[in-house]
C-alpha cells in the first residue's frame, strides 16, 4: 500500500488552508488559526482510494524539524504533500530539501501562488526537488495527481489546475474556475486531525471549520478569491452541511464552528435555510458558530436567524473609513453602509469582528485618520487592522507597481510585512507606527477593558485567551516603537 504524508511544516503560524489571505496569525492582533481542512479533505479522498495516510500540522503544534524527521523515518512516505503560502514559500522549499535528504519520495505543494502562475515567475523559485504544484481546489485534483505519481495511472498533462516538473522543465495545465457539486466531497478526516489545536478564540474550546460555500462575485482589487474559486458562488446543500455538523458534534464532541464562506451572508435565503435547519434540530442550543459577511448583504431577518441558530460572532470586512478609498478598492459599500451594518449586528446581539486595511497607494495620512475614526464609530468587539498586501495578479499589485510603491518581489511577504514601501504619501515606517499606536489605544480604552472583564466573569475561560491576545498586541506594538 502506498503511503502519503500530508502536513503543514514547522514555523510561524499562517492560515495555510486559506487561499484568499494566507493570514499571518503569529503577528496578527486578534486572529486565530483555522483547522487544516485542506489536509483533511485530501486525507479522506486518498484513504477512499486505498492509500495509507499520515496527517500532521507541525506548525500549529509548535513542533520542529526533528519531530518531522522522526515521523518521516517511522512512516517512510512515498509522497509528501504540504500547503504553502506567499509568505512562507522560501522556507517551505528549504523544508522540501530537508525532507528529501531523509526520504526519497515524491513532493507535491499546494497554494494560491500556483494558481495559473506564469512559468517565468516561478523560475525564481527552486522546484528541482518538487514533482507537482496544485494551484486550484485541491480536493478535485489530489486523487488523480497522486494516482499518476505513485500508481502511474493517467498523465499529469491531463490534470487541470497544476504545474508539474520533469527533466524538460516546468509545464502548466489548463486552469479554470469550474462549478463542481460540493456535496460530492467527503467530510475532512477529522479522526486524523488534532482538533484540539483549532479553538474558538474567546473560550478556547475546539472549533471545527465547515466549508459551506466557495466563490465570490465581488471585485475588490486586493482579493485573490475570484481568481481561484471563481465569481460563480457554489453552495453546499443545507442538509449536507448539517450532516457534517452532526458528525462533528456526536463523533468528535465539537460544539463550535467556523462556517467558511467568502461571504456567508451573500445568499440570504440559503443562509436563513441553514440557520432554520439548525434551529429545528436536536443541535439547537448545543452548538455555536462564527462566519464572515459583508456590510451590504445583511438584513434584520437574517441576523436574527443567525443569532437564534447560535452565531457567537460575525466578521465584516469594513476596510476603510473613506468613501473615496472604498470606491477605489471597488468594495461595493460605503462609510454609511458600514455604520448601518454595524448597528444592525449590534441590535441583533451578535458580537462584531471588524477587519480594516490601510496602506493603499493613494492614501494620505488624512485617509488613515478617517479609517481610525471610522473604527471608533463602529466600535467592534475585536478589530484586525492590516496593511494592504498587493498579491501578484491582483489589480492592487498593478496599482502599486504604477505608483512606484512595490518593494522587491511578491514572494515572502504578508499583511504584516507587505511588499510595499508604504503609500505614495506615507512611508511604511509611519504606517506601522500609526497602526500600532491606534491598536494599543483601541484595546486599552477603560470602557473596552471593563466590558471584557464583564465577559470574563460570565465566561471564566475567556480570561486566559484575552490575556494571550493582549500580550500578543503589546509584543507587536511596543517593540515597533
Quick structural summary:
This protein is an alpha/beta fold and about 475 residues long. The protein is built from 17 helices and 15 strands. It folds into two domains: about 5-170, Cobalamin-binding domain (Rossmann fold, 3-Layer(aba) Sandwich), CATH 3.40.50.280; about 200-480, pyruvate-formate lyase- activating enzyme (Alpha-Beta Horseshoe), CATH 3.80.30.
Write the layout of secondary structure elements.
Blueprint: E1 3-8, H1 37-48, E2 52-57, H2 58-61, H3 65-75, E3 79-83, H4 89-100, E4 106-110, H5 119-122, E5 132-134, H6 142-151, E6 162-166, E7 169-172, E8 207-211, E9 213-214, H7 225-228, E10 234-235, H8 238-252, E11 256-260, H9 268-279, E12 288-293, H10 300-309, E13 311-319, H11 323-328, H12 335-347, E14 352-358, H13 365-378, E15 382-387, H14 395-403, H15 428-443, H16 446-458, H17 461-478
Parallel strand pairs: 1-2, 1-3, 3-4, 4-5, 8-11, 11-12, 12-13, 13-14, 14-15
Antiparallel strand pairs: 5-6, 6-7, 9-10
Helix pairs in contact: 8-9, 9-10, 15-17, 16-17
- The Rg value, from CA coordinates, equals 22 Å
Q: Could you tell me the strand content as a percent range?
A: 15-25%
Q: Strand order of the main beta sheet, please?
A: 2-1-3-4-5-6-7
CATH superfamily (homologous) name of the largest domain: tm_1862 like domain
What overall geometry do the principal axes of the alpha carbons give?
Answer: globular
Which CATH first-tier class of the largest domain would you pick? Alpha Beta
By CATH, the architecture of the largest domain is named Alpha-Beta Horseshoe
Q: How confident is the prediction overall: mean pLDDT?
A: 92
Structural class: alpha/beta
Low-confidence stretches: none
User: What characterizes the major β-sheet?
Assistant: 7 strands, mixed
Named CATH topology of the largest domain: pyruvate-formate lyase- activating enzyme
- How much helix, percentage-wise, in residues? 25-40%
Tell me the total number of β-strands. 15
Count of the separate structural domains: 2
Measured distance between first and last alpha carbons = 56 Å
Counting DSSP H or I runs of 4 or more residues, the number of helices is 17
